[in-house]
Design brief:
Blueprint: H1 2-19, E1 24-25, E2 32-33, H2 40-53, H3 61-88, H4 94-97, H5 101-111, H6 114-145, H7 149-175, H8 191-207, E3 229-235, H9 241-244, H10 246-265, E4 269-276, H11 284-293, H12 300-307, H13 314-320, E5 324-329, E6 346-349, H14 350-353, H15 367-379, E7 387-392, H16 421-429, H17 438-458, E8 464-470, H18 476-479, E9 486-493, H19 496-504, E10 508-509, E11 519-520, H20 521-532
Parallel strand pairs: 3-7, 3-8, 4-11, 5-6, 5-7
Antiparallel strand pairs: 1-2, 4-9, 4-10, 8-9
Helix pairs in contact: 1-6, 2-7, 3-6, 3-8, 10-17, 11-20, 15-17, 19-20
Amino acid sequence: MTRLRTVLRLSAALMLLDASITFGNVWPTPAIRWTGQLSFELAVCLLVVALAGGARQPLSRRALSWLSALWLLLVVGRYADVTAPALYGRDVNLYWDLQFMPDVAAMVMQAAPFGLIAGAAAAAAVGLLVLFVAIRWAVGQVDRVVAQSGPRRLLASLGIAGVTLFAVQEIQELRSPDIYDDDRRWVPVPVTVAYARQARLAIEAMTRPATLAPSPPMDADFARVRDADVYLIFIESYGAVSWERPEFARGLAAARAALEADIHATNRNVVSAYIESPTFGGNSWLAHISLLSGVEVRDPHTNALLMREKRDTLATAFSRAGYRTLALMPGLQRPWPEGRFYGFDETYTAETLRYPGPDFGWFGVPDQMSLAWLDAREINHAAHPPLFVFFPTLSTHFPFSPRPPYQPNWPRLLTDDKYDAADLARAYEEELDWVDFGPAYVNAVAYVYATIGGYLRLRPDRDVVMILVGDHQPPAAVSGEGAPWDVPVHIVASRQPVLDRLVARGFRSGLAPARPTLSRTHELLPVLLEAFGDHR
C-alpha cells in the first residue's frame, strides 16, 4: 500500500510539473489547456536528479523553495510565450514592450470595471500562490524518492526518453521545417529557449549598428493635387480582417454601402488596395513613420535612430509645395518633441482641443469631434492655403467600447450640448464582451465609416484627396491566429487622373480592396507621390 501511494504521488507530481510548462492557449482568451506534450526542461531535470540522487542528501526546505520559485518562473515564461501572441498577434519583445506596459495597464483600468480589474488581480495573486505551493509539493515528492534505486531508475528512464524524443523531433524538423506546428510537437519549444530569445533580442537592440535605409526621392511637384486639401487619415486597428472575416464583413456591409454612397453622392470616387503594415495589434507610430518617411520602421530602435536624423517626410514635401501642414493628434496627451522630425507647421494635441467630454474609450475624444474641430478652425473659411492633414483616429482603439454616437448635426458637436441624452445612455449601456471583442470592433469601424462619409457630405464642395489607411490589424483576440499583417488603404478624390494612376499601380476601383497585397507600408509613399505629381 505504501509503495502504491508513493507511485501515485510521484505520478501526480510529474504530471503537474510537466503540465505546468507545456500548456497551450485557448484562443481568443487568456485561458490555457494542457496539450499532453512532454517538457524538455523536466526531462533534463529528471535525468540530472537521477544521476546525482544516490550521492546527495535530501534538499533543505530553503532549497526546495528556491527550486520551486525557479520553476514558477518557467511557468510564467510559458504563459507569456503562448498567451501574448494569441492575444496580441505577434511575438513579444520584452526589451521594447515592457516600457509600454504602464500605458496598457492604464487603458485596461479605464476601459474595464474596477470590480473586474480587482477580481482579476486578486485571482492572479491567489493563483500564483496556489501554484507555488503545488510546485513545491511536486518538487518535494521527487526529492523524497530519488534516494531509492527503483524510483531513481524510473526517473532516469523518463529523462532519457524525453531528451531522446526532443532530439529526434529537432532532427526531423531540420530536414522538414514544416512537419510540426505547436500542437503536433511531442515536446514543445522549451521555455528556456523563449527566455534566451528575449535575452538575444535585448542584446541586439542595445548593440545593433546605426544603419538605416535611404529615403525615397520626395521631389514631386504635386501638380495633380494642386490646391486640393490632402488628408492622411490612419484608422486605428483597421485591418484586412474587417474585410476578410465573414462575420465582420456581414456586420459592416451596410456601413460600407453607406460610405460608398456618400463618396459618389459628392462627385468623388475611390480606389483601394491592401498593404502590409510594419506592426500588428499595436505600436501605431511604426506605421505612421514608415509611411510619412518612406523608410520601413518595424521596431522602436529603428524609430529612435530615424528620428535623430534630418530627413524629408511627406509633410516637408507638401510644405515645399506651398501647403500648410497639420498634425491632428487628439490622442497625444504629453509633450511630443519627436514631432520635430516630421516637420509639421502645427500640431494639435489633446491640450489644444480641450475637449470637455463626454469621454469615449481610453483617449476620450470621438473622431467626429476632432474632424469638426479641425474643420471649424482651419477649413471652413472663405480662403485658406491648401492643407496637408495627418490624423490618426482614436475611436477604433482597443477595446473598441464605448462607441460614440454619430451626430448628424456637425455644428452641434462644437456646443456644450453635443448629444441627446438617450443616445449617450445607449452608448454607455453597451456592455463589452471581454471574451468576444468582434461585435464591439464592428461597431467601432462602422462609426468611423459614418464619420468619414458624413464629413464628405458636410463639405461636398471641397476639393479634397483623402488617404484612408489602417495602421495595423486589431489584436489577435480579434484578428485570429496567424492573421496576416495586411491593412486596407483607400484613396478618395474627385480628381480622376490621380485615381487612374493609382489603378495603374495596382489599386482597384471601389471601396473593396483585393488581393494580392500591393506593397509594404513604406513602399506606398513613392506610389502616392507619383500619383500626386511629376518629378521636378
